[in-house]
């Protein structure tokens, strides 16, 4: 897409610190890292979000995430890795070219996990599971 900053990175119109490139993906360092080594994995073929990834990209994304996570953990001597993907504005997506964050984590690096939500009544978890299973059939 013409005005997409990540497409420009894929096309090398904008320079980036690329750490890995395959036929389908590019992995490069985030210029606004949460921790040093924070990497973004993006499909070379534009897709706004996870829902629009083509079959080849979606089926190989898991392998790429696993591969890059292992490399970053080792290279950055990280204690852990967060894999984060925001889809849609409501989920915090800011750049609308699908991307996966690989963030090295360290014990006591100050980031907090979100508080879990509690179910409001008995049986609610079963209702939600049934709603999701039913939507898969339609
Ligand atoms: Zn794009």
Structure report:
By secondary structure, this protein is of the alpha+beta class. It is 30% helix and 18% strand. It contains three helices and five strands, in the order H-E-E-E-H-E-E-H. It has a five-stranded antiparallel sheet, with helices on one face. The radius of gyration is 17 Å and the shape is globular. The two termini are 32 Å apart. The model has no long low-confidence stretch (mean pLDDT 96). The structure holds zinc ion. Zinc ion binds next to helix 1.
In this entry the ligands are: zinc ion
Category by helix and strand content: alpha+beta
- What's the mean pLDDT score? 96
Please tell me how large the radius of gyration is: 17 Å
- In angstroms, what separates the terminal alpha carbons? 32 Å
Total of helices: 3
Secondary-structure element order, as H and E?
HEEEHEEH
Instruction: Tell the overall outline.
Output: globular
- Low-confidence stretches are none
Total number of beta strands: 5
Major sheet attributes: 5 strands, antiparallel
Cross-sheet strand order for the largest sheet: 1-2-3-5-4
Classify the helix fraction into a percent range. 25-40%
Specify the oligomeric state. Answer: single chain
**Percent of sequence in beta strands:** 15-25%
């Amino acid at each position: 897409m013409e005005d997409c900053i990540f497409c420009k990175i894929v096309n090398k119109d904008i320079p980036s610190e690329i750490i890995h490139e395959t036929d389908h993906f590019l992995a490069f360092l985030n210029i606004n890292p949460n921790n040093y080594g924070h990497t973004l994995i993006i499909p070379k073929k534009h897709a706004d979000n996870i829902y629009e990834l083509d079959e080849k990209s979606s089926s190989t994304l898991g392998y790429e995430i696993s591969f890059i996570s292992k490399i970053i953990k080792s290279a950055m001597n990280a204690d852990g890795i967060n894999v984060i993907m925001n889809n849609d504005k409501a989920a915090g997506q800011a750049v609308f070219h699908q991307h996966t964050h690989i963030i090295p984590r360290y014990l006591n690096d100050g980031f907090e996990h979100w508080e879990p939500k509690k179910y409001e009544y008995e049986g609610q978890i079963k209702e939600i599971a049934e709603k999701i299973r039913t939507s898969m059939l339609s």
